[in-house]
Amino acid sequence: MTSDRPRLIVHIGPQKTATTTIQRALATNRDLLAEAGVLYPRSGVLDPRAEVAHHGLSFALQRRYPDWVRPERRMLPQPALRAVRQEMTAAGAACAIVSSETFADIVDGRQLAPFRQVFRGFDLLALVCRRDPVERLHSYYAQGLRGGNFIADGVEEFAQRVLGQERRLYDMAIWRQHFGEETVLELDYRSLCAGEGPAHNFLRALGFGDHLIGRLEVAEAHANPTPSGPVLALFRRLNGIAQIARPARIQLYAEIEAWDAAGLSPAELAERAGAAVRARALRPHRAAIAAALAEWAADPSPLPQLDEAAASAYRAAITGTDPVTLAQPAVRSHSAAGRLILHIGPSKTATSTIQTVLAGNARTLRRHGILYPQAGRASSRATAHHFLAFAVKDAYPDWIPAADRRDARTIREALRTEVAAAPWAKTVILSSEYLAAILRVPALRALAGWLPERALTVVGVRRPPVERALADYAQAIRADRFTTMDVAAFLERAVANGLNANPLAPWQRAVGPEAVQILDYAALTDGGEVVRNFLSALDLPEAAGADLAMADARLNARPDWPLLMLLRHLNGVDGIDYRARLALYQALEEVGLAEMERAGPRLIARQKRIPAEAREALRTALLAWLQAPVIEAEPDEAMRAHYAARFAAQAEARHARTA
């Protein structure tokens, strides 16, 4: 503390370098730090009563808040930083420490400019902890399995996915540029964790003396321990079961970790977890979870880590000592070499099932020379290439924040880089039903040329229009527009809007009919083997389909008609955020109509993201409907035939106009 200038210390983590332990110690010892003229601000902490890190400050700088952050807690960058400075002034502090591992997510140097603007006249110090890249990868991977995105990848796939992000983080270029080379302090992780522990060593590295450090109160040596290898292997199995509600999954995993820490054997742990699942609203998934628990109990082997060669290659790629990337497993040869497959849907043709299984089987597909790229997906957890489609169409939906959007050129270059790093990939598959909504032939031709050296196949699925319209109606009630329309009115609108339009026609004009392949929906879904039928129809290796680990066979299955009518009734309640309503409806579908009167009101009461007034209105509407259900008749054969004829006439008229 030799300078007379006030100082701001920005602890950027990254995650899995004892950040939680340090943050809890700093928050617990705020009064002690204040005696030494050091402020650990409450400004920038989203909920000071429950949280200890300055994630809100980091999100403000990035202009990107997660959905769970309430609008009233969100701030712009400069007001967020000014609040920290004002708190320093009020406290008479000469130094402030802000800490968030999400600072490490900042990739645009312009997002750091407000530090200099607000803290003019301050000494700025950015502090990062260096941990061996492979050690951090394994810890980061464990975190992804047990929380966050609940990934189902193997460690090799995960390493490939995070490689670019980790290299940017390692060189700290933007922080050095905006804070100055001499104002970036690097700590060694092993030294940080040695002796007294991370919090003491952290403050000692910043120049604080024993008179302060010796009085620290530290509740625990390690605030976020990694579960055992066998338990991580169990989580990976369970993560392959799609659409378990996030709160239920978090609760179950926390209990499993506690039982593991208590020393239960795998058989005992599996039995205890099975009982917990049976006692909760997880009915659609009980059989799949029970099977996963039984398989794991029979073989509770820990997850494999990177072998020595792959670890060396990863470490070299991160540190920049060698441009080599991870070694790839051997590829079995087959005839489908040098192909690009664009799967365009359209919606309600088993697209979610295909996308989820392909995204969850990256390692298996790679053994057969098939790459399902990360480029063009919204995040590491996303399964479809919707951002690619939005970028090519140059039209992102309003619900996607501007900061999250990427233009077509950025995605194209990311895709080319990913494909170039995968010389084993004989076939590349991209999938989004939103590709069917792109009608401009020049845009389609441009997309077809993104990987010009590969033979192109555009794949669409044809489903009878009435079936597809009814599936779309169910989706509009429960997860899309949350409509209150009756089924006849919806079908009328579908006819008027041209639901039966052929999305493959623009592609046939753009790339030629010979590059377009049309699959029949009934054949695709025959025997419930959607993904295997999909791969087989494209002449991809039969062994690839046989090796796939399947998620739920019907990932986006329509609920029973009476339950659908209940959800339509609840759509009449206004004042509910889209994602909050979606989460509630998923939970209600898991409960089922038979248990709705008992469990439904409790589920509604737990939805704290829904305003209290709306929760009460939902509870009232639910109970009223259960006492006197209003169930519109499900479309019968006569009604289906009527609308089938209407759709056919519409298609014929469109064909005549086109001709």
Short description:
By secondary structure, this protein is α/β, with parallel strands linked by helices. Helix content is 51%, strand content 8%.
Q: What is the average per-residue confidence, as pLDDT, rounded to a whole number? A: 83
The best one-word shape is globular
Query: How many DSSP helices?
Result: 32
Report, as a whole number of angstroms, the end-to-end distance: 80 Å
Give the biggest beta sheet.
Answer: 5 strands, parallel
Class inferred from helices and paired strands: alpha/beta
Question: What is the helix content?
Answer: 40-55%
Q: Give the strand line-up of the largest sheet.
A: 2-3-1-4-5
What would you report as the Rg, rounded to the nearest angstrom?
Answer: 27 Å
Strand content: 5-15%
Protein described:
With 659 residues, the protein is α/β, with parallel strands linked by helices. Helix content is 51%, strand content 8%. The protein contains 32 helices and ten strands. It has a five-stranded parallel beta sheet. Strands 7-8-6-9-10 form a five-stranded parallel beta sheet. α30 packs antiparallel against α31 (612-627).
How is the secondary structure organized here?
Layout: E1 7-11, H1 19-28, H2 30-35, E2 38-39, H3 55-62, H4 77-91, E3 95-99, H5 113-118, E4 123-130, H6 133-146, H7 155-171, H8 173-179, E5 184-188, H9 189-193, H10 198-205, H11 210-213, H12 229-239, H13 246-261, H14 266-278, H15 286-298, H16 308-319, E6 339-343, H17 351-360, H18 362-367, E7 370-371, H19 386-393, H20 408-420, E8 427-431, H21 441-448, E9 455-462, H22 465-478, H23 487-497, H24 504-511, E10 516-520, H25 521-524, H26 530-537, H27 542-547, H28 561-570, H29 578-591, H30 596-606, H31 612-627, H32 637-658
Parallel strand pairs: 1-3, 1-4, 2-3, 4-5, 6-8, 6-9, 7-8, 9-10
Helix pairs in contact: 3-4, 6-7, 7-16, 12-15, 13-14, 14-15, 21-24, 22-23, 29-30, 30-31
